[in-house]
Amino acid sequence: MWLNIFRPQGIRPLSPTELLALFSAGRTTYKPAKEIIEEMRKRSRNWQPEAGTVYPALHRLVDKGLLEKSPDRKTSFMVSERGYLFMSSISNEIGMQLEESIAFFQTVLEGIIDLNPFEAEPIITKGEKILETGLKDLQKLKSAVVEEKIRGDWKTVDVEFD
């Protein structure tokens, strides 16, 4: 699967849960696991991560050296220096992932059209709505990034999505 490119040097690729947990963890201070889970839920549209899935992912990220566990609170985490390096190294791969995901689902839709064009139309309509919402969210994110770059406070970008 295309997510295999999210591989920190010398270790197994990150799962989608690990990747989302890493990007939801505290950047400058330790963040409690419950807040990380809430952040992941806020950023997900249909998937609602459960503690039983996220806690093991957080501990795997600690084992991989991408997160640090708080010395005084066992369930608080912060991105490590290695985690920052990894996160900043995958920016090109994120763009490739977007392209690959779209190509993948387009191929699947073409297969559905070949089998039964009547089933494809509602799926395509839903896809159009999802892409429209996604484009609006990306535009919000881009505006927030530009604003943060102007203020020079790039570590605090926080955007509310629909």
What can you tell me about this protein's structure?
With 162 residues, this protein is mostly helical. It has 6 helices and 3 strands, in the order αβααββααα. It has a 3-stranded antiparallel beta sheet. The radius of gyration is 18 Å and the shape is globular.
In short:
The chain is mainly alpha-helical.
Layout of SSEs?
Layout: H1 16-24, E1 31-32, H2 33-43, H3 51-63, E2 67-69, E3 76-79, H4 81-89, H5 91-115, H6 117-151
Antiparallel strand pairs: 1-3, 2-3
Helix pairs in contact: 1-3, 5-6
Task: Supply database-style keywords.
single chain; 6 helices; three-stranded antiparallel sheet; mainly alpha; Arc Repressor Mutant, subunit A; globular; about 160 residues
User: What Rg do the Cα atoms give?
Assistant: 18 Å
Mean pLDDT: 82
Tally of extended strands? Answer: 3
- Helix tally equals 6
Tell me, briefly, the overall form. Answer: globular
How far is the N terminus from the C terminus? 28 Å
Based on the structure given, which CATH architecture of the largest domain is correct? Orthogonal Bundle
- Spell the H/E element sequence: HEHHEEHHH
Uncertain stretches: none
**Share in helix:** 55-70%
